[in-house]
Specification:
Radius of gyration: 12 Å
Distance between the termini: 34 Å
Shape: globular
Strand content: 5-15%
Helix content: over 70%
Largest sheet: 2 strands, antiparallel
Number of domains: 1
Structural class: mainly alpha
Length: 59
């Protein structure tokens, strides 16, 4: 995955999760291997969803 594809993936992730990434987080993600990058976006998505739904209620 080239850098432009990663930027598009991060932008899509940001829109889908209604969450903006800090520049420092983008830099960290850009330094990961392709698989680590994908795994980290998946992990962050799960974390966002879990933090929004606590005890069946949207926070």
């Amino acid at each position: 995955m080239n850098r432009l594809d990663r930027l598009f993936a991060m932008q899509s992730w940001s829109w889908a999760n209604d969450c903006h990434l800090r520049m420092s987080e983008k830099v960290r993600l850009m330094s990961l291997s392709d698989q680590e990058f994908k795994d980290e976006l998946d992990r962050m998505t799960k974390e966002i969803k879990e933090s929004r739904y606590v005890n069946g209620h949207v926070n």
